[in-house]
Structures are given as C-alpha cells and as structure tokens.
Amino acid sequence: MSVSYRKISSEHLLEDVDKSFKVIAGPGAGKTYWLIQNIKHILRKSNRILPTSKIACITYTNVGANEILKRLEIKEKVIESSTIHSFLYKNLVSPYVYLLTDDDSEPLVDITKMKTHDENIASSGLIYQWKTKYNIRYFDKSKKTAKKIKSCLEDLDWFFDENEELTLMTRKPFSSRIGRYSVRREDLLNYKKYCWSKGIIHHQDVLYFSYCLLESYPVLREILVAKYPYIVLDEFQDTSPIQTKIIKWLSESGAVIGVIGDPAQSIFGFQGASREAFVNFQLPNQKNYIMNQNRRSGENIVSLLNKLRGDEINQTCLWTNIADHVSLIECDGSDLKQTIESFNSKRKELNMNGDYCILARNNPTVSKLKNGQLITPWEDLEQKDSANRYRFLLSLMQCQEYGQKGMIDFAIKECVKAFQTDANDKLKKPFNNGNLTSLQKRSISVSLLEFLITNRGEALKKSVLEFYKDLKTFFKNQNLDLQGVSAGGFKTFSEGTLVKELIDDLKLPEEKDSEIRTIHKSKGAEFESVLVYLEDIEKLLEPDINEKEDETRLLYVACSRAKRFLCIVTPPLDNEERQKTNRLIEGK
Length: 588
Hints:
Blueprint: E1 6-7, E2 21-25, H1 31-45, E3 55-59, H2 62-72, E4 79-83, H3 84-96, E5 117-118, H4 124-133, H5 143-154, E6 156-160, E7 166-170, E8 177-178, E9 181-182, H6 185-197, E10 201-202, H7 203-216, H8 219-227, E11 230-233, H9 241-252, E12 256-261, H10 275-279, E13 287-291, E14 293-294, H11 299-309, E15 316-317, E16 325-330, H12 336-349, E17 356-360, H13 363-371, H14 377-384, H15 389-404, H16 408-417, H17 438-454, H18 456-459, H19 464-476, H20 489-496, H21 499-504, E18 516-518, E19 527-533, H22 538-541, H23 551-559, E20 562-570, H24 575-585
Parallel strand pairs: 1-13, 2-12, 2-13, 3-4, 3-11, 5-10, 11-12, 14-15, 16-20, 17-18, 17-19, 19-20
Antiparallel strand pairs: 6-7, 8-9
Helix pairs in contact: 3-7, 7-9, 11-23, 14-20, 15-16, 16-17, 19-20
C-alpha cells in the first residue's frame, strides 16, 4: 500500500468528524463496534447535522442494516441505515425516475405501475411476452434453449465499457451464447425496456437509474447531500464501480464520506466489485486507518488466516488464552452425511457445544450437503409453471421461513410480493379474481404469515399439491379465489414433490441463522465452529489473496468465520498434499 495508514483499535474515535475516511479492518477486528461508536461520536461533535438532515449508513444486507440500528440504540430518526439499493431507490429512483426518457422523449419507466425493486427473475411468461413483442424468432423452442435464455436474462447487469459509458451486458462472458446464436445486444436492452414498461425495476437497474439521474441532473447531488451530509459505507470492498462513481460525486458536492472494508474479503467480483477499487479509493483530505487486531478467533485460526492472506496486514490475536483447533477431513464426496457426522463428533470431543455453520462454494454444493444429493425442485417447478405459481409459492415459502426465524419485517415484505396486481389493483394470476390495495395486501399478509408459521410443521409432511389446496381454502375465507389445479405439468410436479423438498432447496436473500449456506451468505457472521467444504485444494496450498479471481478470498472469508474450531474438508489428498496441509494447519 503506497498510501500511509494509521493503526488504530476498535476504541478509536475520529479526531476530525468533518474529514472523509477509509478504514481497512480484517475479520474480527471489531469494525461494527467501531462504526457504531463513531456514528454516535459524529452526532455529538458535528455541526452539520440539522433538524432536516441525517447520517446515511449503507450496509451490504438488510439484516446488517437492521443490526446497526438495533445496536445504535438511538430513538431519534437521525440515522438512515439501509442497503445501497434501498437508499438510492428511496432517495433518487422513486421520486425522480420520471425525469429519464428514451430517444422519443417517452418515460423509460411506467411509474404508475412501479412499486419497488426486486430480483431479476425471468419468468416463462415474461420471456414469452418479450419474444412476442420484439419478434424474437431466431431460437428453437426446446426446453434446453428456454433454460439458457432464462439464465442469460437473469445474468444481465450494467458495466462501464472502454469509453466509460454504462452498457448492459451479461456477467458471465458467454451467457448470451445459446446454441448457434447469441441473444442480440439490442434484444437484451429490449428485455429491460419491456420490464420497465411494466413498472418492473431490478436491483441492478436501481444503480443504473441513479447514475443516469445524478449525471443528467447534478442538482440532485446537492439535494441528496443536503439531506445526508455524512454517508458511511460498510463492506466497501464489495462496492461496484457504479456505486464508487456515485459516492465520489456526492463527495464533490460536499458530503463527508466514510468507507470501511477489507480488500482480502472482496468476493463479489461477478457483480463488478474489485479489491483494487477499494485499495485505490481516495478522496481529497481523506484520513486512512487500519485495524489489525482479531477479536474473534483463537491463535491457531488467526495463524492460518495470516498465511492465507499473505499481504501487508498481519493480524494479531487478542484472545491468546482460549483453546482453538484447526482440523482436516478428507472426503471423496460419496458420503457427505458421514463427513458432517465426523465434524459434529469432533465438536463434541472438543466440547464445542455452541453455534456452528457449514460453508460451501456454491448453491449446488449446499444442496448436496443438505440433502445428500443435488435436488432442484424450484427449477423443476418453474419449468412446470404456467400460472405464476412459481413466484407465488417462492414468495410464500420465503415469507414462512423468515417468519420461522423471527425476521418478521422480511417475512411480511416477501408475503406482499405474492399478491401481484395491475394498475387498477386487480390481482393477477394465480388468482382468478379480487382487488387489493397496498394496505389490504399488508393486512392479509399478517394473517397469512400467522397461518404459515402455525401450520409449518404439518405442511412439511405434505405434498405441494396438498399445501396448495390448503392455501386455496385460506384465501377462500378471505373472499379471494386462488386458481385450482387441473391436469398438467404443475399437477404432476405438485403431487410428487414434498413441501420439505422446496424448503430444503430454498435460497433466502437474507440469511441469518442457516446452518448450511454458501460462503457469500456468511459475510458478517461468526460461529463457534465452522466446517469449510472444499472441492479443490489448490487455493489452500497456494493462496493468492491479490489475484483477480475471488477463489482465495472466498476461502479466507470462510475460514475467518470460525471462533474456536475450524474444520476444513478436502478431496482425497496424496502424501505430499497431506503433509503440506498438515504443516499449514499446525502452524509450521
């Protein structure tokens, strides 16, 4: 690092609250505690917080945003804690997107239909409408092709091209290649335009629209800074170039910017984030700090983390008086259940009776760890769905699981999504009739959530068809008519699939306490014991934390979640690999 960084502890308070700052903090350094204390410190010392202004605290997840508000314990509404997408949607897109027009001076988005921003789920109905409207006929009608088109559209994101212009592209280089053809670039943009014409805005579009608004209407920068003179961003190593440009514009307009993160934990490269962007981030008169203590893990785990990291930051272990352990299990992948049993036996032997988590690289591996084999019921359901039942059931299942975990706000939000309505508040499929206002949707969602949680235990034993019929009865009591199930693909699927299978394959956007999850979903979490399931040994034996790809950093993030017991599962090793691995985990 060519820039000078001052070493600080988690107790350090900013000397000058009117200077922008950057903090590099490794895992377990106490950065959330530091952040909380310094937000309170800014509120006490600053003369820039007026009755109409707030401090914006941007975090990577809604769970993280809620945790910060909870720990701040500030009753006054002087803190806006949210994700970057929620922050920009509320303050820029929702009130001002009507200003953006196409080449014919027509609005880009139909704001009369716009309700919120959501994940990009390219349903079969949406794809059919897009292909019909734009006369897209250069693909065959096979199921394989349909699946690839869906994957391509869901892989879309906005990136800067060589001319620094925002361009719509797929994240994976060859996602748009489908058989002999590629989806034309203009058709990819037409997919977005069609969604916008229906009031559908995806998370990625929030960043795009915000950038366009701030570029075309600089006065909006001044308005935003007047309301938020301080903007603090956590997990900044995972920030995309679009977000970085927006933040620099706000700094130029007078905002005090604080960014906190760790380049060694940059693991969202597929979204355009890069460790270099965080390392090189510098604003005028910015103060730079570094926190290199580890308050989370024992000495053996910290020693392994330092070897994986191998950069300028060498963490020191604060808890030198606790016993911690790093162990190795070799597994050929044929008996994952036995591997997990071995991990739990080792926990019991070491008297590790606290919380634990099992981490894997991707969702298919998580599915195998949960079920002993790869199952894809949600993918199967979407292929069989012809009446929006896929999105309907997905919202309800997510609602149910959030409610079961005590995350009621998230549960209600997901439940409301199940009730898709048109501009006249008329319910869309899979309902046959009914009108619901926003207030009525929320009211029914409360009753539905109670129904789902109360009957969850019994529902897990039922087929999806039986569960669907229970829902039909529930809605009948609400004077709403949920479509019945006649012969066809959905009936065959729902008869032969258990609700438990859908739950086991469910991916919650906001993870809080799942015992088996992807490494990406473990960010910000910590556990007494952690099992890290590796399908490749290369990055453990030859780590490169500064590489362009995220693989070493993913391993680092996974291992750094453990407080007292870290268990690494590898494929079968030869003698040389085994010796190297043992020396590594034994600290030699």
